[in-house]
Structures are given as structure tokens and as C-alpha cells.
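> call design_seq(struct)
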């Protein structure tokens, strides 16, 4: 049940930094440290597009079905026309650009980099331009939830309104007590989750100010205290409360956040789980099995991508089985 592996005629030559399903189709966007962006039609397992740049790509996202964006190690922010394969630079950080998101609500491209800056770009501009707004923050991870930017730095999580990025939302500077590795929004803007370097996951819903934290431990690790970094979290868009976590030892675990229980655990993947992404219907989960340059003792097998059917029927079946064993 580890899923179908995507095979490429020309394998990726370096680590995978991010995988993202398209907003509507089953096209999968892949950014890599080998300086390439790839677009794969998961339905047919065909490579639709590959564009090579001159710098490692550290993150990527869709603007829409025909436009994609990426953040590069030389600071460049690239825009790709997926229909024709053309790409251009919309702006640049003074150091490596590490995070990128697109907001359909405000038509902004939001980026962060090692220069300690968070920048906002007008996606409607067709030429390289200066950012429309910016502020100073050393960001480790960020994501968008509606018109809110959720940004982590160290063990702190800050929330910003995209319409006034120069100030945090009052009272929304939260301390998690552990270094945050990733922050991801719940479906339908209902809250967020953070994963930490010591294996903790914190869920915070908008209806519950207290939230809760649990230790994300593989069944094979029960009884052991060795911390395992949670590299990524993905929420199922069609099943409220359901989400999956991926860690640097290659474990992918599905959870029911509403009932606070484990649903199932997939067979261990050959590398760290670098990135996770659900498709728009919540039926398919893309899993990037790749070293991440985050841990000294990571396995460095060849990067691979797996597509796993992990939708509502699979998770509900797992939940029923879990309930029967309690």
C-alpha cells in the first residue's frame, strides 16, 4: 500500500523540495534542487513539462492551472507558463528564496528568503518588478489560509493579514515551545497545524483557542523517545479533520484530528518524506520520498515520488477498523 511510483525517463538528479497538486486537475508540480521544475499528469503518468533554470528550486506553487511559480537558491522568483514552457523572473530576494505561496483572494505572490525578508508581489505584473510590500522576518515555513499568512520563525508562529502585511494580527503571536518545521492550513480556513523538529504536531482550530498537541510516533517507534522531525502535513480537502504527516525517517501516518486518533500508517518509504500534497478531490496523495538536507543522518537513496489512493473511503474504512479494535 505504498502507492504507485512515478517513473521518469530522466530521473531527478538531486533532492525534491516540494510537490503540489494543481487547483483542479491531477497535474502535479515538482520542484527540485537539480534546478528543474516538472509538471506531471498523474492520470497518465506522463511528464507534460520540464523547465531547467540556473539555480536550485527550493519551493513551488500554482497560481492557476496554467501558471506556476517557484523560489530559487539565487533569490529569483520565477513564473512559468505551463502551456508553452516559457518562464520569466518576477523579482528577486537578496539571498536564497525559500518559501512561496499565491493568494487567489488578493492576487499576491508571497515569498520569504534567507535575507530575512517576506515580500509581496503583484501577480498581475508581466515584468520583473519591486515588491508591493514587505517586512522583516526570518521565516522557516509559511502558508496561506484565506487572507491570512501563517509564518513560523524558530518556535513562534505569527499571523498576518495580507491586506496589511507590515503588522501582525493583534494577539496572534503564538509560542509553540519547540522549533517549528512546517505550518499548514486546515481545509476551508478552519485553523492550522504545525509540525516540529522533535516530532510534535499541534492542531489549532478557529473554534478552539486552546488546541492540542500530540507526539507523532510511528508504530515501529512506540516505547522509544528518539525524536523524528515532522517534515510536512497535508489535510484532506474532502474529509474534515483528516490529515497526514510525513517525517524524515520515511513514515506517513493518517490521523483523525476530530477524534484525536491514528487512522493508518503506510509502509515506510525509502527516504525522508520531503513533501506531501492532496489533489483537489482528496482522493490522491502525492508523497515525495527524498533527502532534504535537514538532517545529518538522512538516507540518500534516489529521490522518488509515489501516488497513494488515500481518500474518504480509505480513511473511513481505516477509522471503522480502528474503532473495532479499541
Amino acid at each position: 500500500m505504498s502507492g504507485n511510483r512515478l517513473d521518469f525517463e530522466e530521473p531527478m538528479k538531486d533532492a525534491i523540495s516540494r510537490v503540489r497538486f494543481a487547483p483542479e486537475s491531477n497535474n502535479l508540480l515538482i520542484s527540485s534542487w537539480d534546478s528543474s521544475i516538472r509538471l506531471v499528469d498523474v492520470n497518465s503518468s506522463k511528464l507534460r513539462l520540464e523547465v531547467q533554470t540556473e539555480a536550485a528550486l527550493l519551493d513551488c506553487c500554482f497560481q492557476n492551472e496554467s501558471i506556476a511559480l517557484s523560489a530559487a537558491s539565487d533569490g529569483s522568483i520565477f513564473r512559468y507558463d505551463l502551456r508553452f514552457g516559457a518562464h520569466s523572473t518576477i523579482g528577486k530576494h537578496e539571498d536564497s528564496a525559500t518559501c512561496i505561496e499565491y493568494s487567489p483572494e488578493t492576487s499576491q505572490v508571497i515569498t520569504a528568503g534567507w535575507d530575512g525578508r517576506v515580500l509581496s508581489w503583484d501577480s498581475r505584473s508581466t515584468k520583473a518588478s519591486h515588491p508591493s510590500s514587505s517586512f522583516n522576518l526570518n521565516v522557516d515555513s509559511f502558508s496561506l489560509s484565506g487572507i491570512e499568512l501563517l509564518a513560523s520563525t524558530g518556535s513562534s508562529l505569527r499571523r498576518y493579514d495580507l491586506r496589511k502585511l507590515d503588522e501582525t494580527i493583534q494577539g496572534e503571536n503564538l509560542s509553540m515551545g519547540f522549533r517549528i518545521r512546517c505550518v499548514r492550513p486546515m481545509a476551508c480556513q478552519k485553523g492550522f497545524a504545525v509540525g516540529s523538529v522533535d516530532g510534535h504536531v499541534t492542531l489549532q482550530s478557529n473554534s478552539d483557542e486552546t488546541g492540542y498537541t500530540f507526539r507523532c510516533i510511528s508504530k515501529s517507534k512506540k516505547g522509544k523517545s528518539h525524536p523524528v522531525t515532522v517534515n510536512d502535513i497535508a489535510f484532506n480537502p474532502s474529509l474534515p479533520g483528516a490529515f497526514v504527516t510525513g517525517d524524515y525517517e520515511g513514515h506517513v501516518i493518517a490521523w483523525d484530528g476530530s477524534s484525536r486518533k491514528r487512522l493508518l500508517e503506510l509502509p515506510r518509504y525509502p527516504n525522508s518524506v520531503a513533501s506531501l500534497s492532496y489533489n483537489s478531490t482528496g482522493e490522491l496523495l502525492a508523497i515525495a520520498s527524498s533527502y532534504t538536507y535537514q538532517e545529518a543522518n538522512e538516507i540518500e537513496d534516489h529521490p522518488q515520488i509515489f501516488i497513494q489512493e488515500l481518500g474518504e473511503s480509505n480513511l473511513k474504512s481505516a477509522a471503522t477498523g480502528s474503532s473495532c479494535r479499541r
